[in-house]
User: Which sequence fits this backbone?
């Protein structure tokens, strides 16, 4: 069971790292949001602009809390 927790933590960290890489890449914000939306659409998740902004805010909050 402990090994599953470690694997889940590693996968979660990788997902957060990928999200951070996309969010802080040197591209325009609109381009980044479009890329994120396209990736989510391919996974079957559809978000409108407001939901996307909420998601970005939530990720930024999580990152800020993790840095403290």
Assistant:
């Amino acid at each position: 069971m402990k090994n599953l927790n470690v694997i889940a933590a590693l996968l979660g960290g990788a997902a957060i790292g990928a999200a951070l890489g996309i969010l802080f890449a040197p591209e325009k914000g609109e381009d980044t949001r479009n890329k994120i939306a396209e990736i989510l659409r391919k996974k079957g998740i559809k978000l409108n602009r407001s939901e996307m902004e909420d998601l970005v805010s939530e990720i930024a909050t999580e990152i800020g809390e993790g840095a403290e």
About this structure: The mean pLDDT is 76. Residues 2-67 form one domain. The longest helix spans residues 2-23.
